[in-house]
Amino acid sequence: MYKKLIKYGNSNALILDRAILELLNIDEGATVKLTTDGKSLTITPAEKEQPMHIYTTGMEILNHYNEKKHAEIEADPVKKQEWQKWQPGGENFPKLYKEMTPIIIKYSEDAQKLTCKDFMHECEELVLKYQNNLESKEYLEEYLAIRRKYAPSLDAMDKEIREMRKKLGAPDTYITM
Question: Domains in the chain, ordered, with CATH?
Fold first, then answer.
């Protein structure tokens, strides 16, 4: 069978008949995999991604830990007042946001690596292991080791954020890692 390429914007397109799509078990709008040996182009159906398993037990424990830390801040009027200054709507938030945004953008591709299911699974296991002690030095060290495995450059991001927060005068309790 011969097909003619047609102009499509600044590119060329190849029209695939419904019969070809059915033969390959490809639905309209599906993603396909293109491979080449330098002379031929092969089009195959892309493997359908398996939905990412959400590891809720460990995430629930982590959320509980965060709620506990938040409750501790809320219970202390001085800590609460200082914390609110650095939160959205607080007087120090605009300068924190202005300084933090370029750092976050700089490392966003690396941070995206922390959304893969293998990283999530390892974190889930770690949270379960330390469920009663997420504040421990051991938990933090193991978490950072897992994070370094997937996105080692984020250590530099942490350093930049710590330095920026210190420069702005954020309390030590808000400077993490």
Answer: 6-45 (2.10.260), 56-174 (no CATH)
